[in-house]
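User: Please fill in residues for this 695-position structure.
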């Protein structure tokens, strides 16, 4: 009966989503291109909260969309006139409700911020009195304009409000210095914008043309379905696109003063033997995820990190209390633990679940005596929080914890899921059972209470490192070579070994011949792999591909061109402007920073294409797929974000000056990749000449 009811319900929903003739309804949607909300033009790759929400609605309604592009004001008027059927991101007002219909449930909730730019000096986000006398741009007759006027009246700041027709005009006015700040939603995450303060929030809805009541009925049904089955869908999906909106490398006066008093140096204490989080490397270097943070401290914030390894948690904490180190970890992130020990926790470096390791069958007695390693604050913190009543068996290392379980001194041990592959190198793991604990936890760094400035700086560093912490750096440090000796194999597979030996004796001659053949093939494969590995290196300064990597990619493309199989592609050649003058005026470290800034700018714009540094100040990008389809738009964005010349303050805030040129592969005309490169290089020099004329 339940199955029948569900089937009937699904058929009714399907019927509601289908128009005359059994075809899906076509809905004309107003599509405003706005970063993180709706991105992508006609025929282009689309993303954003608004776009994803439209697709989720279509999953329930069966709609087909016809996208109509334009500015917010243009499309709102089309909605009122019935020229489009649906539009999102509309704040409810009684005036609008007279001409359009609103969805019964909100599409989401957005916060509005006063934003400024990182390179301006008139507004200090940490000293709001600097807003007095400033000019603030806002979209005319918008919801945020009303919020701004109310906020100014309540706060008492004396600002001049400048109206613009669209958000793009407002942003352009801020970038040009026509205004000192602008009002934008928390989706304004790029362009070097710095959030000053939130002025309020508001819910936003879907708007439906009054000529399409059928659309409104389907929409409301879909919204109820979405928000009933997943009550946090709006918040989670929205947060996915605004994660980077409100974090930046802009430091307060107090934070800058804290660094200046310490000669821009942070002393970091870490626990050795804690991969993938950290371990000692050759010399004074650090391996693991903390190495990523140390690099970000240096490259993005100009802070040197002096790291010191400790063999046990007590020694590290004592060093912190004695003032020998400022920052320490890794730690199990828990507010109660931090309060007990006088710490303050940073934001999460990464998250993990925990694995219970034990012998025999699991029972209530399994967690009575838990082995804890002295060199793992993560392990001891997990035990203290998850099993506060358990007896703790102190061990020197994680390997000793495993031995304590196998010899009966402890009933179990706890390990971070991220360390499991590393633990497999120990023979004692083979006799242990594993049970994943349901409660996830986060890993953090700590500092003593009172170091709020260091905490804020560290949190900014962690956020700036987010992609690397969850990507290649994590993967590179969770694997270990696990040697398997003959003795190990014999112990586990005695009977199998005897049978194999009998078979080997019977087939000795055939196996020998086979062995010779396989050995020859293996040598050839190893030789080929060695040749390829010599090319597979990244550029040490920028972490993008190097010249060898580009030449390998060029060779692959050339093979396909020669075979007549190469699809469309384009090359972008970019050259850093002013490198010599920066080197001469500010030193080679500043020159390296300029190259890194340029690399980050190029990588952000061409996020789906391989980037190579092929010379001191020269980069090449190979465009295929979606980036190729958007090639003209992306090139325009690169040129728009490239400064004509570079000054010290711009350099410190991530600015770069890049001349760029692009050329497309023309089948039937181009016979080599080099021909495409030459045209792109020539176009780059034309751009460079034009940029010099602007200076």
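Assistant: Residues filled in for all 695 positions:
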């Amino acid at each position: 009966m339940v199955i029948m009811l569900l089937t009937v319900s699904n058929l009714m929903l399907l019927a509601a989503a289908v128009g005359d003739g059994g075809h899906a309804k076509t809905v004309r949607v107003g599509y405003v291109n706005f970063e993180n909300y709706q991105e992508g033009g006609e025929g282009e790759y689309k993303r954003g909260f608004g776009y994803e929400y439209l697709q989720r609605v279509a999953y329930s309604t069966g709609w087909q969309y016809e996208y109509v592009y334009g500015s917010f004001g243009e499309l709102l008027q089309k909605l009122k006139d019935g020229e489009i059927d649906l539009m999102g991101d509309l704040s409810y007002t009684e005036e609008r409700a007279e001409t359009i219909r609103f969805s019964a449930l909100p599409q989401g909730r957005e916060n509005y911020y006063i934003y400024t730019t990182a390179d301006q000096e008139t507004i200090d986000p940490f000293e709001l009195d600097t807003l007095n006398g400033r000019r603030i741009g806002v979209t005319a007759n918008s919801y945020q304009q009303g919020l701004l006027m109310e906020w100014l009246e309540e706060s008492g700041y004396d600002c001049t409000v400048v109206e613009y027709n669209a958000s793009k005009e407002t942003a352009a006015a801020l970038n040009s210095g026509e205004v000192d700040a602008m009002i934008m939603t928390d989706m304004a995450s790029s362009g070097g914008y710095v959030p000053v303060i939130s002025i309020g929030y508001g819910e936003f809805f879907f708007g439906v043309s009054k000529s399409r009541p059928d659309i409104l009925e389907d929409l409301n049904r879909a919204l109820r379905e979405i928000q009933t089955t997943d009550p946090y869908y709006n918040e989670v999906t929205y947060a996915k696109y605004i994660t980077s909106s409100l974090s930046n490398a802009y430091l307060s006066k107090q934070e800058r003063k804290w660094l200046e008093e310490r000669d821009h140096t942070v002393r970091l204490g870490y626990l050795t033997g804690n991969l993938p989080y950290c371990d000692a490397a050759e010399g004074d270097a650090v391996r693991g995820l903390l190495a990523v943070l140390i690099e970000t401290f240096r490259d993005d914030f100009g802070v040197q990190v002096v790291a010191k390894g400790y063999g046990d948690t007590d020694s590290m904490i004592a060093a912190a209390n004695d003032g020998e180190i400022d920052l320490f970890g890794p730690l199990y992130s828990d507010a109660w633990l931090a309060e007990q020990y006088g710490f303050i926790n940073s934001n999460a470096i990464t998250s993990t679940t925990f694995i219970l390791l034990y012998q025999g069958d699991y029972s209530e007695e399994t967690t009575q005596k838990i082995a804890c390693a002295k060199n793992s604050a993560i392990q001891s913190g997990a035990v203290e929080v998850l099993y506060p009543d358990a007896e703790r068996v102190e061990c020197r290392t994680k390997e000793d914890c495993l031995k304590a379980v196998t010899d009966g001194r402890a009933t179990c041990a706890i390990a971070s899921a991220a360390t499991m592959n590393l633990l497999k190198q120990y023979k004692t793991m083979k006799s242990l059972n594993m049970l994943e604990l349901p409660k996830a936890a986060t890993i953090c760094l700590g500092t003593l209470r009172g170091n709020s400035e260091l905490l804020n700086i560290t949190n900014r560093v962690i956020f700036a490192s987010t992609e690397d912490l969850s990507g290649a750096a994590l993967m590179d440090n969770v694997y270990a070579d696990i040697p398997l000796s003959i003795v190990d194999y014999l112990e586990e597979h005695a009977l199998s070994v005897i049978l194999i030996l009998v078979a080997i004796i019977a087939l000795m001659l055939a196996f020998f011949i086979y062995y010779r053949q396989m050995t020859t093939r293996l040598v050839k494969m190893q030789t080929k792999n060695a040749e390829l590995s010599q090319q597979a290196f990244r550029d040490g300064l920028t972490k993008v591909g190097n010249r060898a990597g580009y030449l390998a990619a060029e060779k692959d493309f050339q093979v396909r061109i020669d075979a007549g199989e190469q699809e469309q592609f384009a090359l972008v050649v970019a050259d850093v402007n002013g490198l010599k003058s920066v080197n001469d005026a500010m030193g080679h470290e500043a020159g390296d920073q300029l190259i890194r800034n340029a690399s980050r700018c190029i990588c952000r714009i061409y996020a789906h294409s391989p980037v190579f540094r092929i010379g001191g100040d020269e980069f090449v990008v190979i465009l295929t797929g979606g980036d190729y389809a958007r090639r003209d738009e992306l090139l325009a964005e690169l040129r728009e974000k490239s400064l004509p010349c570079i000054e010290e303050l711009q350099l410190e805030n991530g600015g770069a000056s890049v001349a760029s040129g692009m050329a497309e592969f023309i089948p039937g005309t181009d016979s080599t990749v080099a021909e495409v490169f030459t045209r792109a290089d020539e176009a780059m020099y034309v751009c460079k000449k034009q940029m010099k004329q602007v200076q």
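For context: Residues 1-21 have pLDDT under 50 and may be disordered.
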